[in-house]
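Form 7-S
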Amino acid sequence: MEKRSSPWRRSSEMAPQTVTTLMEYAVGLLARRDYSVAELHDRLGRRTEDGALIESVIDSLQQQGLQSDTRFAEVFVRSRISRRHGPCRILNELMLKGIEGAAARAALQAADADWYALACEALAARFSAPGNDLREKAKRQRFLAGRGFDGDQTRHALSCAWSPEMDN
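Output:
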């Protein structure tokens, strides 16, 4: 029986890659969305085990302006702000994507978001009222903490989320 090649190869069965094929693959990835260097390294590492080849492709992409960690971080932060995520969660996710602390904090700073207003929006969108007892208030606090808002932002949101001024 003839053995067919599978598109899902194991790492021990990787087909040899050339700079051109790896570059085409990387450009195809970047055409759909921005990737951090760490994410690209991981994706390209699934295609070849040649670290020098991967570094060469990534360097070439950066020189051509096709890949930028700064641009990735800015787009990522804007995306998460539109989902009403808080700064703590966004910072953590950026670090998981391979963006180091200083660059991640710079991207958050550049977004110039009003985290207190964003916390109020997130809370009011999820809950219709502040809650009558401690259990309900704790539920709202956990929600905001899970969204990545700190204690001050949470306290502010709990006191202001349903005020008439927020409707404007």
